Amino acid sequence: MAVLTPLSAAEVAARIQSGKAVLVDIREPGEVAQERIAGSIIKPLSVFDAADLEVQPGRDVIYMCRSGARTGMNCVRLAACIPGEAFVLEGGLNGWKAEGLPTVSGNPSSRTA
């Protein structure tokens, strides 16, 4: 069975900064418009289609939601979209903020991996 490997906010930040990973935010547009992590790819779970998830080979895919619960409930579906290991941001956006990492507000521009 496919699973998502948890990573701490610090681990996620380091992988993103090094260019080794892409962060996929599965929250809905209204949530993302309020607050998000800069550079994340917005793929709402309600319309999630693995065919739309274009990630450069060799980059880790890390999923996130607000608290980690939504990602956890859909881990099999999300992990199955990735060849090899897929990851989840522990605690989601809440965990990211708890570590003092930055977020941005406002509507994201269109972003691909």
Keywords:
alpha/beta, 5 helices, 5 strands, 28% helix, 113 residues, Oxidized Rhodanese, domain 1
Description:
The structure is a single chain. With about 110 residues, the chain is an alpha/beta fold. It has one domain (about 5-100): 3-Layer(aba) Sandwich (Oxidized Rhodanese, domain 1), CATH 3.40.250. Helices cover about 30% and strands about 20% of the residues. It has five helices and five strands; from the N terminus they run E-H-E-H-E-E-H-H-E-H. It has a five-stranded parallel beta sheet with strand order 1-5-4-2-3. Helix 2 (about 30-35) links the parallel strand 2 and strand 3 (about 40). It is globular, with a radius of gyration of 13 Å. The N and C termini lie far apart (about 25 Å).
Topology, pairings included?
Layout: E1 4-7, H1 9-17, E2 21-25, H2 29-34, E3 41-42, E4 60-64, H3 69-73, H4 75-79, E5 86-89, H5 92-98
Parallel strand pairs: 1-5, 2-3, 2-4, 4-5
